[in-house]
Amino acid sequence: xxxxxxxxxxxxxxxxxxxxxVLVDFWASWxxxxxxxxxxxxxxxxxxxEYKFAKVNVDEQIALANKYNVMSIPNLVVFKNGEVVSQVxxxxxxxxxxxxxxx
Length: 103
Hints:
By secondary structure, the chain is of the alpha/beta class. The protein has a single domain (4-102), classed as Glutaredoxin, CATH 3.40.30. The chain has 4 helices and 5 strands. The radius of gyration is 12 Å and the shape is globular.
């Protein structure tokens, strides 16, 4: 499953109402660490169809970044049943990202 770009307009349906765990990558195009994490997220999305992977561009979606207290990027937020269950900032290894979803 490909990584889905989400916005304030589709966040409710794509993330909060999703019936599987969702990892949301809050990122920006100018962010070097984000560019390091992004390919890992894309790989995981292809390898683990049991989860959903989404990306939020913080420059374009300021309201979403503010709502989820994204103060630094990359910022990975895991949602289950519409609730935040974990949130980490900074770069992570692929295995660490997957572990966030399995918690």
